[in-house]
Amino acid sequence: MAQTKRKRRTKHRGNAVGMVEQRGRTGKPLAGAPSKAGGRTANGASAARGPVAKPPTYKSAALKALFGVAILFVFFRFLSGQSNSTGQALAFCAVAFVMYTPVMYLTDKFIYNRRLKQQAAPKR
């Protein structure tokens, strides 16, 4: 009976410490592959500095408040011991949304200012 063809296995070689290293690609580089030569790119330079903090906006604060209000609506409507109607739950949530939005904005602003101070501080 003829032997089936097997795919050629790559060889692993151990080093002095015993770690196994795989042989890298020896053929031509792929057409779309980025080249390793060259200076720093814009992405590499920004990655070295760390993530840039985005300034807070009322839109982002409103989205966070809306998420919190959705959870409150479920609690007020379905999970509370009292039998609240949908209108009562919506009224509670509207008041909560008006109160949560500025609180979320101030929280985001506090965190943003703290990150700016941390980025401006010299690294130790």
Describe this structure in words.
With 124 residues, the chain is mainly alpha-helical. It has a domain at 52-119. The protein is 52% helix and 5% strand. It is built from 3 helices and 2 strands; from the N terminus they run ββααα. The protein has helices at residues 42-49, 58-79, 86-120, and strands at residues 12-14, 20-22. The protein has a two-stranded antiparallel ribbon. β1 and β2 (20-22) form a beta hairpin. α2 runs antiparallel to α3 (86-120).
| Mean pLDDT score | 79
Query: Helical stretch count?
Result: 3
Helix content: 40-55%
Proportion of β residues? under 5%
Secondary structural class: mainly alpha
Quick one: biggest sheet?
A: 2 strands, antiparallel
**Contiguous uncertain segments of 5+ residues:** none
What is the CA-based Rg, rounded?
29 Å
Cα separation of the termini: 70 Å
Instruction: Indicate the overall shape.
Output: elongated
Task: Write down how many β-strands occur, each being a DSSP E stretch of 2 or more residues.
Answer: 2
Strand sequence of the main sheet, in spatial order?
1-2
Order of helices and strands: EEHHH
